[in-house]
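Field: COMPLEX_INPUT
Field: COMPONENT_COUNT = two
Field: RESIDUE_TOTAL = 1428
Field: MODE = joint
Values follow.
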Amino acid sequence: MKFYQKWQGRNCSPERNAWFEATVPGNIQKDYAIANNFADWQYSDNHKQFIELEDDHWEYRTSLCYDKKDGERVFFVSEGINYKYDVLLNGDNIYSYEGMFRGFELDITDKLTGKDDMLTVHIYPHPKSTRGEAGTRDEANESCNPPVYYGWDWNPRLLISGMWDEAYIETRDETYIDKCEVLAELSDDMTEGFVSCVFQCALPCEIMLFDADGAEIYRGTDKSFRVKAPKLWWCNGQGEAYLYKWVIRNAKEERTGYIGFRRLRLLRNLEFEGPKVFPKGPYEAPITIELNGRRIFCKGSNWVNPELFWGDITAELYEKQILLAKNCNMNIFRMWGGAGAPKKSFYDICDREGMLVWQEFMLACNEYIGLEGYMKTLESEASAIIRKFRYHACLVFWCGGNELFNSWSGMDQQSHPLRLLDKLCYELDYKRPFLFTSPLIGMAHGGYTFYSDDQGGDVFQQFQSSNCTAYTEFGVPAIASMDTLKTIIPENEMFPPEPTPAWIAHHGFGAWGMERWLCKNVLDKYFDEPSSMREMVDRSNWLQCEGYRGAFEEIRRQWPRCSMGINWCYNEPWKTAAGNNLLAYPSTPRPSYYYVQKAMRPTLFSARVPKFDWKRGETFEAELWLLNDAPESVKGSVKVSAEIGGAHFDLGEWRTEVQGNTNGRGPTVRFVLPDIDGTDKLILKLDSEDGRESCYEYLYRPKKNIKKIRQLNV
Amino acid sequence: MKFYQKWQGRNCSPERNAWFEATVPGNIQKDYAIANNFADWQYSDNHKQFIELEDDHWEYRTSLCYDKKDGERVFFVSEGINYKYDVLLNGDNIYSYEGMFRGFELDITDKLTGKDDMLTVHIYPHPKSTRGEAGTRDEANESCNPPVYYGWDWNPRLLISGMWDEAYIETRDETYIDKCEVLAELSDDMTEGFVSCVFQCALPCEIMLFDADGAEIYRGTDKSFRVKAPKLWWCNGQGEAYLYKWVIRNAKEERTGYIGFRRLRLLRNLEFEGPKVFPKGPYEAPITIELNGRRIFCKGSNWVNPELFWGDITAELYEKQILLAKNCNMNIFRMWGGAGAPKKSFYDICDREGMLVWQEFMLACNEYIGLEGYMKTLESEASAIIRKFRYHACLVFWCGGNELFNSWSGMDQQSHPLRLLDKLCYELDYKRPFLFTSPLIGMAHGGYTFYSDDQGGDVFQQFQSSNCTAYTEFGVPAIASMDTLKTIIPENEMFPPEPTPAWIAHHGFGAWGMERWLCKNVLDKYFDEPSSMREMVDRSNWLQCEGYRGAFEEIRRQWPRCSMGINWCYNEPWKTAAGNNLLAYPSTPRPSYYYVQKAMRPTLFSARVPKFDWKRGETFEAELWLLNDAPESVKGSVKVSAEIGGAHFDLGEWRTEVQGNTNGRGPTVRFVLPDIDGTDKLILKLDSEDGRESCYEYLYRPKKNIKKIRQLNV
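Field: COMPLEX_OUTPUT
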């Protein structure tokens, strides 16, 4: 039996130590803020209210009343507490730990008096490394906290702590089924499944396996058994995410869960020829996912924490955002290391919905070194994460963390924390690949803006001149909707936007260099001085919509040399004023979401247009492609035309057929742009009868609208 | 007490099973060949005599007579037997193992009768993988044999087996000191040494440490103790290879050995700026050795097995070749994975002589996959190798093997054998770096010939247009000396050389493509039709001498962007007809050895000349450098002149000063080449008064000697 307690919380500083009602799961800083009537922290720079609490200690308490029963044990169970804490019962320390991802099950039976037993969780301040700059993410480099807490260019600094995941009192007797894990394997030839169950129970238990129609596949007491010709689990777009349900039960207790059978390999990308001339270096890192014998193109997004207060994250929230991703034709999430690992329900939903998951450990953009205490915590936390998620069909590989081999981090394959993670994955999850970091050789991150002179021009030009094996971060920012801006930017700061406290707090200015993420410099390159905030918002969203579409379609065209397109980023933890995300907080698709959704359709006609802005007299060109990352071959035809200010231009027709998971490259159409006043849009239409049509809007400059192109540095 | 037995051997095939005298350490195929009067296997293609023995079983036997004494145990001890074997006593199997690098200590006391006890070692045929081409090195891809046995482009196929390392009977009583290992560590600030001793003995033992002058530093019974301000161990050229002697003893037994204190790190190379444009990949692999806080340039050679029959390898042979390397101004050996690991004495000598050692495991150029049996053997063998050598000061890092990330191997960081090796090194030798393979990103192997159109021209052009972090294999071949050729090539095959059995057997033709290693196509590019074998030999050695010098000096000029120059290869296991080695079998310096020795001097004036062959009318140029990889700063001046057929040309003078471990770049001198008959040599002299002079010989073509330059493909 589980008992969910009512908890109280307090700040331990003498001047703040009144008890208040605490929400579990939750974060104690939020409970405190509510109890102390903090102003809306989404608004302006109000989140700074939390800064002065950073170095405080906190406490939770709850009172237990339990009548002892023979043969029954009482446990205090938690899925994890953030970050460094002691558990006390009637004032006696019964457990101490550092790390938010490992849960515990404390047998407290013998310490209970039966009346008003006081269970306390005492939480220490977050560690702050002194190796680096105070007040920045550098402070995270000696802890296993998700470094995003310490501040990121889309997450305000907010050192949250507390009982962020499930916690309860549980009574157990000899019927209790403990340490239950069911693993599914598939034979190399994919004709036979192997199921192995691990659990502990004093009583005999019955094991059952059912297929998705509820038909019984197995019933017995063998902890290992075979499944002949199992139906395979596929990711979104490649087939059904077929799951089998298992049940382990005795007369009183029952455990259930789901497993999927699939064979997963990480292969070298095709169409890479390697260095041809001596002295010769090595091949690139393998980054093509082969699922059930089929090389697949991975398309998706970088997942970050969907709430500032992680305790607020629910299965419902996960489900909403995962379904939106599936609906956006995505098949993979990169669980970016800066935001650690999710709660358990995330993986259950991804298993069910066919979303592949690339899971990183909680290292990002820092140099983590092999300090003894850090290594001990990392080993404990990483082991807990591996054991928590390794049975999921959707989990494709582990990864040490984000951008650890880049100059700003300074780690490499010799770094002891990464060697430890590789070793733990090898020991605890032998068959699943482990990547040291992203990017690895051949892969790349960036760019993150629509345009930069230094970075090769606009996003079309950047990606069309790149030749990487996987683009696992790239982004185009847009300003938030007017509705959102009104709830975070005070009216008197709204227009024209300047680096004021509210805009800075919400990452409009100064997030990464002064111009990000509002990127007024980019808007100024393409457009006249704006007359309103709404006009800026619209223009900025136009760039994000076509920029994302242009990048995603180009990345898909590079298949199979390139095997992944994963943009930065999917969601956001609060209302940013501008950013690269596709979902606006809490879970609202931005306009760009729908453009990415189009670019991600399994099958579509796509135009490879070399740049975004065109002027009269130039020869516009578009190379035609039929993109197909579905397993079936497709036939189709497309009519190409352009429109400028109502004038229509027929550009030709193309009929083609391509195999499954294969793209077709067609002719290039061209026409010289006429001089037409009264519009700044060049519309390119690929008309098709079968849902594969595309319609692009490029910037057009008639004669009178040609302005000086300024040099931009990002 | 140790007792070295006389052994007999036999081939187990019924038609060949006469007993013969066996040498231990040795290889049983050689014993058999001697007993059966095999023709000289160095001559012509006589090594093929061994092919028909490949799949045979073999046996060793010896008879033991031992009077049991109270309190004494009898052990059969071996440092390793090659490759898969059983040990039997009086017909009873007492031990079975696969792998040549792990020794054993078998307590046979209770099985001894005291009279004519028969100890037998039964050896199975070498495994031959069927994943690949029969009769090639592919057959090594499922075993932990050094793959070179299966044939390489400088080692004939010869599947040797037997008791290749020490083996003896030992009696032990309660005074015996067992499992003795002494490890030295140095504090991060290098002011304090830590010594930890591991051993087992029933009696108390005294531990002593002496400095190199014999002064006692420690005496006591603590197994861990500190050494204040220890003298540091340095590699050749950077300081003294300072060793401390330890003694562990009781009344009857004594163990001794040497330790050195040094702090070693593997750092990213300097002067690398990383990708500048989005999308951005990661940094290169770190490959600069920092020894005791000082970044050093590593110069050396690839070590291969110095004998066909590894049992013949002695400490004296190691010492001779290691001293020659030291005398050649080298400071590092890469222990190339194809030839596995050496015997123990190799490391003792390298410790003493200050030769750094990069040790690879026995994987090379193949795709080793995670088969269960292979993984088990690899774990056992690799663990044994790590424990055997980890206490040595000279050992700089472990490496998974040779060219495993290149196209012809097809492994990558996900390969389970490499993940296992990384894990074992992490667990057993935490502080020492582990490289997955060579080359890694930024590093390179090749080229291996003096000239190739496809590969960017001659060796000068190839290296001057390269920009790698480390060149860890590169070579220039030459034909063997006439004296050597006469002992391996029958007179009627000698000249002109053709792809006859003897030339092919000795790698003159068909070793790697048809032209290697004799490279007649390269000689034809530069020279007229040869009139004798001796003329070919001389020309070929000229190319090797200047080619190696040109490559090594250019690689040194690229410091610190580049941190290593390690040529392919140092030695050879038998008399090759042509090859890239610096020592000819058995241990004779080739002419190129002396040119490499000059190029490796700690301090020298060097000329960066853009190519090897010049013709009249061209503007010859030489950029002047003062190379210094010694720790001290140097001053010097140089006079530059050229000579063509007795005509002398003064080209200028340069005076400079450079810091320790730093090169100085000077002016470029130029002159237009006159037309002078009667010579094909352009001599460039850098005269200096202090041993830093250099004198280069380039090819010169006066008007009448200009021939058509043919296109060459390698």
